[in-house]
Amino acid sequence: MLKIVGFGSGAKDNMTLEASAAISSAQLIVGYNTYVDILKQYFPDKEYYSTNMMQEKERCQYAIDMANEGRDVVLVCSGDSGVYGMASLVYELADEGTDIKVISGVTAANSGAACLGAPLSHDFAVISLSDCMTPWELIKKRIRAMAESDMVMCIYNPSSRRRAGYLKEACDIVMEVQPADTVCGYVRNIGRDNETAGVLTLKELADFKADMFTTVYIGNSHTKIINGKMVTPRGYKVV
Amino acid sequence: MLKIVGFGSGAKDNMTLEASAAISSAQLIVGYNTYVDILKQYFPDKEYYSTNMMQEKERCQYAIDMANEGRDVVLVCSGDSGVYGMASLVYELADEGTDIKVISGVTAANSGAACLGAPLSHDFAVISLSDCMTPWELIKKRIRAMAESDMVMCIYNPSSRRRAGYLKEACDIVMEVQPADTVCGYVRNIGRDNETAGVLTLKELADFKADMFTTVYIGNSHTKIINGKMVTPRGYKVV
């Protein structure tokens, strides 16, 4: 049996009961180095197999092979394993005979939103700025479409050394449609000891130095600041 | 202190450790009748205050008042309290002096996705078809924008007695842009004993009888069926 488990933000508390039970009963836990290091704090006496970034395919294949040999394997991802996680890759690699179960978790969009207030209380989109596996032109098209239809956006992977200017470019696209003082927010290191969060304008976000541990939120025309929190109302009709 | 807690799908297992701890240590649990009935199974010896649908404002105000009187109050929502939940309404009603903490949970988009396979493994949007508090014209505009930018969509509240034709109308809009055999999926009663899920085409979805306990997924041009599961690949670039 192969369980693909999202363990949430990284704070043990943000894990679901099911994720926690699956990890603690597994015979083998497979994952990316950084994630495995987090889990070793909570589940020290387990067997782990970890690999570096960019070795996703090899790691998933190993988890599949071990499950096919009859072991109880958990493949771990941060957040939800179905959101930019390993679940789809496992389905693509495995054959019909592999027994697979996806265990959902809290993705960064939601754990980060809780830090900021309630930015995602109405229709929203989750978009990654990573162009490793998606053409940048398509990403920009999606950002424009979301802005034009007044969707709140949650942006994953807003920046990296190679993609330093991408967040600015994304904000500039949104500013062609939405005002520069649109309410935005960021959360860095969600659920970790050094978690920080802040509310800022779209214009400020364009020049904000995000890193790969930052999740970014762009509000819509209804998003406002209430007592320092970023809040999108549940409804737009005046009742 | 007022904690606004999303308890996930309704299966106890889908709750985070933090949500479970907050509920079990609360002095008062406030929520919608149906949700309170679910929680009473897991936490029978607690004080509950529940009201009917459409009484959200009164319920949130009661929770705020009790917290302001010094009680440890938990306001519960299914899924994530920040996604079409009560978190934003509480921020709108409370004043600066109320101590508020949002505790994130697994929203139906993610718990349902795990039942279907991995439909949300790339950029996606969450959109509600309920026009109680949002103009239907805006909802349709958003659906068109999602389809035109090839975003996977997760649809909440796809149908109700009054809105029987809305899902069909939404699918018809998508079919103006995407082929009729686009891979779609539904999950009904996520996390409950009578949970059902299925994969179908966009054309079939247009005539599907969804109810208010159903969450619907519309794939993008890359979404495919693998061994009966709905899977959107993590990347679209051929590596």
TrEMBL record, chains A, B:
Entries under SUPFAM superfamilies matching the protein: Tetrapyrrole methylase (SSF53790)
Keyword S-adenosyl-L-methionine in record: yes
GO MF, one example: methyltransferase activity
Keyword entries, A-Z: Cobalamin biosynthesis, Methyltransferase, Plasmid, S-adenosyl-L-methionine, Transferase
Pathway(s) it belongs to: Cofactor biosynthesis; adenosylcobalamin biosynthesis
InterPro entries: 4pyrrol_Mease (IPR000878), 4pyrrol_Methylase_sf (IPR035996), 4pyrrole_Mease_sub1 (IPR014777), 4pyrrole_Mease_sub2 (IPR014776), Cbl_synth_CobJ/CibH_dom (IPR006363), Precorrin_MeTrfase (IPR051810)
A GO BP annotation: methylation
Domain Tetrapyrrole methylase: 2-206
PANTHER family: COBALT-FACTOR III C(17)-METHYLTRANSFERASE-RELATED (PTHR47036:SF1)
UniProt protein name: Tetrapyrrole methylase domain-containing protein
